[in-house]
Structure formats: C-alpha cells, structure tokens
Amino acid sequence: MRVAVVGLGWVAREVWLPRLVKHPAFEVVAVVEPRPEAVERAGELIAGARRCAGPGEIGRDDADLVFVLTPNHTHGTLASGFLRRGLDVFLEKPTGTAPGHLRLLEDAAREGGGRLLLSTAARHRADIGELARIVATGALGTPRLAELSWVRSRGIPGSDWFARRETAGGGVLVDLGWHLVDVLHHLWGASAVRGATALASSDFLTREGWGAEWHAGAAARPAADVEDQLTALVATERYGLHLRCAWASYETVDVTRLVLHGTEGTAELTTTFGFSTRRVTEPALTLRDKDGERRVPLPPAGIGDEYDLHLDALRDEAVRADATERALREARDALAVVDTCYRATAAL
What we know:
By secondary structure, this protein is α/β, with parallel strands linked by helices. It folds into 2 domains: 116 residues, Rossmann fold; 199 residues, Dihydrodipicolinate Reductase, domain 2 (2-Layer Sandwich). Helix content is 32%, strand content 24%. The strands form 2 sheets. An 8-stranded mixed beta sheet has the order 8-9-10-7-11-12-13-14, covered by helices on one side. A 6-stranded parallel beta sheet has the order 3-2-1-4-5-6, sandwiched between helices. The longest helix has 23 residues. The chain starts with a strand and ends with a helix. The mean pLDDT is 95.
C-alpha cells in the first residue's frame, strides 16, 4: 500500500514513520512538509520518498493512503481535501474538536469517495486486549462506573502548538483524555451523555522543568491558554464515568489506570500508556468478584508495540465498506464526552 505522510513533526518522526518504513504492507512514497528543518530531521526515514511542499501535490494516482499527522487545527481542512479527491485518509486524533469538523469530513468523503480511518492505537495494547477479554466473558456484568485516569509525572508536550487553544482545540483532555474515552467506548460501547461536572486547571504549563523528556524539550510556555489537568464526573445513559487527566503532577511515575465496575465484578488495570520514560515498573490487571480477588497475567509488551499492531489491523480496516461511517460515529461519541467536559468547566 502506497502511503503519503503529511506533516513531519514528532508523531511522524518518532511514532509512525519508523514503523511504516519497516512494515512489509506499506511503502512511503511521498511526504508533505513545507519546513526544511522538519524534512532534515526526518532524514533517512523519508529517503526515496517524493517531497511535496503542499497537499495539493498528492493526487489519487500518487498514493493509496494518506497519513495526516499535523497539528489539531489543520485536521479537518487537510483530511477533507484528500477525501474529496478520492484518497483514503488515516487521521491522527483528535478527529475534530467541534461537530463542524466532523461534518466537513463526512461531506468530503461522501463527495469524493475516500475512506476515513482513525488513530486508535491504545485499543491495540496487549493489556487492553486482556481487559477486553474479561469484559467479553460477561464477568463484570452490567456496566455501572468507569474510573479512568492518565496522570503524568512530568509530561507536558514539547511542541508549542499543544499549549494553545487556537491550534490544539484544548489541552490535556484532548491529548490524553481522547485515548481514555476511545478505549472505554471500545470496551463498554459508547453511551449517550446526559451531563457532567468538571474542574480544569493550569498549574504547571508556565513553569520550567515539567516538560516531557521524550517529547522535544521541557521549556515553560508563558502564552499557554489550555488546561494541564482536568477532572470530570460524567453521567451517561448506561454508566458513570470518572475521568482524570494530567500532563504534570507530583507523582513519581506516569500512571494510567482503568477501573471498570459492573454488577458482577470489578476489573482494574494499572499501567502506563504512551512513550513516557517514567513508567509503572510492573503493569497489573486485577479482577475482583464474589469469589475474591485474582491477578490476571499480562503478556509481555514493548513500548509502542500497539502502533505496530495498529498498522497490521489498518490493512483490513481500509477495505471495509463502512469504514468512514464507523470512524465518524466513533469520533462523534468521543467528542461528545470531551465537549461536555469542557462545557462543564467553562474554561474553554
């Protein structure tokens, strides 16, 4: 499958390009990046690929799939342009930070026939796979409450656009919370949102020393206007959701915790999502029910393995006739939670 990559920032260089160039099913044939310094940093990863200054240089005959890996505020415009020209598009999260962005994508796909595919790498984690198997057996019973948190020790993204509403559409909730909500919907299914109460704050963004060591630096950002922490309680038609996200905290390691409470049992996963170097030493999955508590063995997994598995699954997803419909439905479900939380904080 011939791939064009749009945007050569951190997520392209560190996450997707190294995997695309090694995967036997994909060939990177073109890149779109107007910044010479970004092209230079990509180096050997894009050797042999045609270099384009703008998205208009990529047509239906040039590639089979376009990876849009640009800042959030460009997702709708860029992806819709390719979809309208009949190209299939893999779009990094968030799919959109407003309902209008999703309508733009829907209209473009209907007009041009291109398929939309979403970035859902966390679903492909080995530990999430084990949690999904527990849910599938019915061991938890009817869903009642999900407690989801992703709290970093020092993990503010290094790219400046993450810290500005205009370019990111939001802060830690859009960045980390989107993954948590997507995984919850994967495990329990989406549920219509009734309302939420939420609190957002920005205590670390403008301080030195709280940036992610693994994400392009740790500089303070005096012009930042997004939240670096958010806590919410969301009521849906089928279950409750307690959500906590933090780019920085006084924790010693980065912890991702998912606790699913059902009528017949509780499953709790403690792990670390993402590429942080400050990780939980031993991820653990525990099941508690009327018979007591037991540890569920987790298969070995390396950092970033879920992205390789996501690429394996992408080949099948790309040929699904309902790929776009499914992607847009999942994006709307995630956005409904994110948007409701932001409205509840009145912060953005």
